[in-house]
Amino acid sequence: MAAVSQRLWAPRAWLGGRWRDRVLLGVGDDGCWVEVVPDVAAPAGVETLAGPAAPGLVDAHSHAFQRAFAGLAERRDTANDDFWSWRDRMYGVALRITPEQLLAIAAHLYGELLAGGYTQVCEFHYLQHDHDGSRYADPAAMSQALAGAAAEAGIGLTLLPVLYERAGFAAPELRPDQRRFATSVADVLALQRAVRGPLVNAGVAVHSLRAARPESIVALAEGSAGPLHIHVAEQTVEVDDCVAATGCRPIEWLTRHAPLDSRWQLVHATHSVPAEIEAVAARGAGVVFCPGTEGNLGDGLADLPGWLAAGVPVAIGSDSQVTRAWPEELRWLEYGQRLGLHRRNVSAAPDVETSTAARLFECVSAGGAAAAGFARWGLQPGARADLLVLDPRDPALCGLPADHLLDGVVFAAPVRPFARVMVAGRWRALHDEGVAARFDAAMQALWAPGGAPTPLG
Nearest to residue 187, comparing CAs of 126, 254, 121? Predict the structure, then answer.
């Protein structure tokens, strides 16, 4: 067992799905918790936290480069605007970003994610090559930029290099504006091995069923270790195209033809039927919802009650970065269900947990850990020593009864009530003027008049 390097004392902390009082927390010299003991008087000389403590969460789905596009696609000058027209405009950003700009953008984003309560981010990484599609001298240049950004911010990173082979089910090649994404199974496995660090691990990803050949998907699953993520059933057009090409719905195809198991994370899974949910549950795979992005893109509403009732692990992600805090994602996740079903507290389960916020928090804490490849997560011995300190003076929390603090974090107001954030036993800065200035310079370069395509171009 690691030696204790520091001790903290929390007047209240979230342990095992509920608030506990007077909690002593010991951090080992390996950056993991070695002791978590409730109902202990504050020992002399131990740092006392200024507010209640809670575990950080995993952002289980991120495209860091899309932070440069957040807020720049909210106008319409044609008869129709949907996911596919947004994607075409997003490609204009992807075609321009350099490794240096990606480092600046991702470092800023990862700092924002820390401030939003995430302490680990799963980077679904498909922006690989130079502007013309040729390989960089170091094929992992963009991956190294992401790892460098995570190290600068102090957040944990699960890098997920992406298999991306074709433009669609009936398209054998990529489109010209997808040239920076091209990878083979061998490329992805090489990228998975290329980047490591104290807070960096790696899995792999498949962009989508439409973007990869069936034999390649199977080969990647058999040749890799760690988490395996895939976009699936995000759009109704994708479902229709998959049925036309394969005779199966996307999730159905995965359950029938892919070696689906607990390593797999089905991102979005917006359009499902009960039989698909049952099949995924039987295989032990998880799902990752990105409510802010799914709302922004008009994807639709997932069958959250069905996934929860089946016991499928659930995680959340920031995806396109239009939202960058887990309280907002959980609020969107629940409010979408309320709007669609005309009910309140849809995610609560009185036989399990009457608080909607508590049930969702516990679900996505466990689901996010699996998505990032962690066997242990939260305030428990052996888990990485990640911690959020809530600000009891925040307007969302001020005056709330103690047992309703988590409800306040999620539902009382759209604020960020985290006063301090710890990752692997170290307190992290939540704002850096130098990082912000570099992000601003990268944005100016990308969006200078006469430079990049306009956001609606």
Answer: 126
450 falls within a domain: no
- Asked if residue 378 belongs to a domain, the reply is no
Contact 353, 96 (CB under 8 A): no
What whole-number distance in Å separates Cα of residue 89 and Cα of residue 84?
A: 9
Q: What parts of the chain have a pLDDT lower than 70?
A: 450-457
> Are 274 and 393 found together in one domain?
no
Same domain, yes or no: 154 and 220:
yes
Report residue 260 as tokens.
């689906």
User: How much is the pLDDT for 351?
Assistant: 87
Residue 223 domain-assigned (yes or no) = yes
Distances (CA, A) of 415 to 115, 250, 294, 341: 11, 37, 21, 26
* C-beta neighbour count of 180 within 10 angstroms: 22
Best CA proximity match to 125, nearest among 149, 142, 104, 107: 142
Claim to verify: residue 43 and residue 71 sit in the same structural domain: no
Whether this prediction's pTM lies above 0.85 is answered by: yes
User: How many residues are there in the chain?
Assistant: 457
Residue type, 412: A
Distance CA 171, CA 349 (A): 45
Q: What angle do CA 455, 267, 111 make, to 5 degrees?
A: 60
Q: Is residue 240 part of a domain?
A: yes
Give the structural domain span for 402. 4-54+383-433
At residue 450, the pLDDT reads 54
pLDDT at 455: 45
- Pairing mode of beta strands 426-428, 4-15: unpaired
Distance of alpha carbon 41 from alpha carbon 241, whole angstroms: 62
* CATH number of the domain residue 114 falls in: 3.20.20.140
131 and 275 in a single domain? The answer is yes
What is the C-alpha to C-alpha distance for residues 191 and 189, in angstroms, rounded to an integer? 5
Give the domain CATH number at 8.
2.30.40.10
- CA-CA distance, 100 to 321, in Å (whole number)? 19
Burial grade of 354 (CB within 10 A; 0-12, 13-18, 19 or more): exposed
Q: Which two tokens stand for residue 394?
A: 């925040």
Same domain, 394 and 361: no
Which residue, 167, 124, 119, is CA-closest to 143? 124
Q: Report the pLDDT value the prediction gives residue 414, as an integer from 0 to 100.
A: 74
For residue 197, what pLDDT is reported? Answer: 87
Contact call for residues 364 and 327 (beta carbons, < 8 A): no
317 and 389 assigned to the same domain: no
Sign of CA dihedral 297, 179, 106, 380: positive
* pLDDT value of position 374: 98
Residues 6+ apart with CB under 8 A from 402: 12, 19, 52
What residues are annotated to the active site? Answer: 268, 319
How many CB atoms sit inside 10 A of residue 51's CB?
21
